[in-house]
Each structure stands twice: as C-alpha cells, then as structure tokens.
Amino acid sequence: MSVKFISRLLALGLVVGLMNIVFFYITNELEQVWYWSALLYYIILGLVIGKRSHNAIANDSNSAFFLGIMSGTGIRMLFSIIFIAIYLIVSDIKSNIFVGYYLFLYLLFTIFEIYELVHKLRTEKNTNKDNATS
Questions:
Q1: What CA–CA distances, in Å, run from 122 to 33, 113, 116?
Q2: Does some domain include residue 104?
Q3: What's the rounded Cα separation, in Å, for the pair 65 and 77?
Q4: Is 123 exposed, middle or buried (0-12, 13-18, 19+ CB in 10 A)?
Q5: Is 63 inside a domain boundary?
Q6: Is residue 73 part of a domain?
Q7: Residue 38 burial by CB count (10 A; 0-12/13-18/19+): exposed, middle or buried?
Q8: Which residues contact 122 (CB under 8 A, 6 or more apart)?
Q9: With a threshold of 0.85, does the pTM exceed it?
Q10: Range of the domain at 79
C-alpha cells in the first residue's frame, strides 16, 4: 500500500473531522462519541480494505483481482451494517441525524476507494505492464 493512499485517506478523515467540529459547534449534538467512533471506524476500515485492494491490483490473475475488489466492497458493506446495528441496539437516543451522517460516511469512503482504485489502475495501464483485460 502506498504512502499516497494512506496520506489521502488521513486527509479525508481530517476534513471530515473538521466538519464534525463545525457541526457540533452549531448543533450541540448529545452523542458526539458515536460520530467520532464512526469516523475512526471508516478510516481503519479504509486502511484494511485499501491494503486488500492494492494487493488485488498487484496480482496478475484477473479472477484474483475481481475477487479482491468485490470482496472488499462486500466487507465494507457488511461491517457497516454491523456498526449501525450496534448503534441502534446500544444507544439510548436513536438519532436520524447520526444515521444520515453514517450513510454519508459510507458513501464518501466508498467513493474515495473507487477513485483510488481507478487512479491506481490508470497508472498501471500507462506503464508497460501487460494488461490482459484491455
């Protein structure tokens, strides 16, 4: 996994963290720990799935590439459902704002993962590496 990917992921986390601070300043949200834990959760999940995706890209087998990328997407969805289920079971206050924020994080980090994947594949295609899918 490249340092660029990690730095971009952490920069995205920092921007969302700053948005959290502004949001908390404006709204005085009661359960701030869930917002911070969701952000940290997605950063860690992004690191794990990013490593898996980069390993799939480096593999020469098309089936291993497809399996690595699609399983990464499935893992993100499964773990996202588990986190929101834990929130709905444990939390005393069931905030629709948090659920919307959580879905926003899911969408944002999924778009980030796809953008990084496409960016990595474009640089691989521009090199002399043989690409059997094109």
A1: 39, 14, 10
A2: yes
A3: 19
A4: exposed
A5: yes
A6: yes
A7: buried
A8: none
A9: no
A10: 3-123
